[in-house]
Amino acid sequence: MAxxxxxxxxxxxxxxxxxxxxxxFTVEDKExxxxxxxxxxxxxxxxxMIAGLEEISKGELxxxxxxxxxxxxxDRDIAMVFQNYALYPHMTVYENMAFGLKIRxxxxxxxxxxxxxxxxxxxxxxxxxxxxxxxxxxxRQRVAVGRxxxxxxxxxxxxxxxxxxxxKLRVQMRTEISKLHQRLEATMIYVTHDQTEAMTxxxxxxxxxxxxxxxxxxxxxxxxxxxxxxxxxxIGSPAMNFIEGTLIQENGLKFVSSKGGLKFQLDTNxxxxxxxxxxxxxxxxxxxxxxxxxxxSSNQKIEIEVEVVEPMGNETFVYFNxxxxxxxxxxxxSVVIRPNQKFNFTFDVSKVHFFDGETEKRIN
Length: 364
Ligand code: ATP
Fold this sequence. Notes:
The protein is of the alpha+beta class. It folds into two domains: 231 residues, Rossmann fold; 116 residues, CATH 2.40.50.140. The chain is built from eight helices and 20 strands. Helix 2 crosses helix 3 and helix 3 crosses helix 4.
């Protein structure tokens, strides 16, 4: 078992830079948790504190219920895979993978067995005699992962391990790491700035911004019920569309009215919105909620002029501007659509996300 628990953990660098601010979460045994957020949000610092590479300024870190704040990195039974692979250039693949075991003085035949087993899992058996410079980026990354596997650590930490790979290899390695997680049944904590990586790999995701945890949840819950505007905009690609406006009531009906003049009627069932009348709200619409020429009466219609069309093959992204608000819709590629064309979209109001215009916290 390997559970990692952070309680009110903060990291304050010199000059009072608060890189990580009062972070609390638990990674369960065998769980795959992804820390995600924009550059500088504190995800790497959090990971390095778990690894023991960075001192914890405040708070407590437990591994399997043992307080490890003052336990050195080498005694935490954790293996970390870095973005830049950190392989020893003068050693062969075999020696790189064996190194950590050698310094722990494992018997030679045990080292050989573990390295060969890991090499087989990763499909690099035929590369064991090569030096890192004779390998491709993807192969180097496999060696770096292999070096972690052979140690059979309690916890694996990954710091943006796929950032240096091209797009196709990244997708491939993504599934390989997910498979590895299933196979090893290990606790893994993975840092990335890429929300797609987070969504596809994590059992749960910790979304961070400015050193503060915004939301911790499963990928689908984050997508369907983002806790605030930041999470709503960060998770999902293309990103959610936002309409900033005022909630108004006319003849007993509620509308959201934007500064630029865009106005749509709300679902009457939205009780939570009643206290927002005449207040600022932000409405969020996912790109896939726009339906071309849908005639369902419960849906809202907006008339648009197409600006840019991006055919993706299986679907098409359509960019348009209404009353100075930039939108993107995601529609089936079977719908024929051209730039400058006038078009009608509808959307189901019951699918709209609402956020407080001041605090940006979720309302509905
Ligand atoms: P990235 O994706 O760019 O690596 P990140 O989310 O991993 O970003 P961190 O590297 O954890 O972010 O950095 C968090 C904050 O702490 C940033 O504002 C950064 O400038 C600051 N920081 C990081 N290391 C130090 C340091 N050694 N001294 C002072 N400030 C630091």
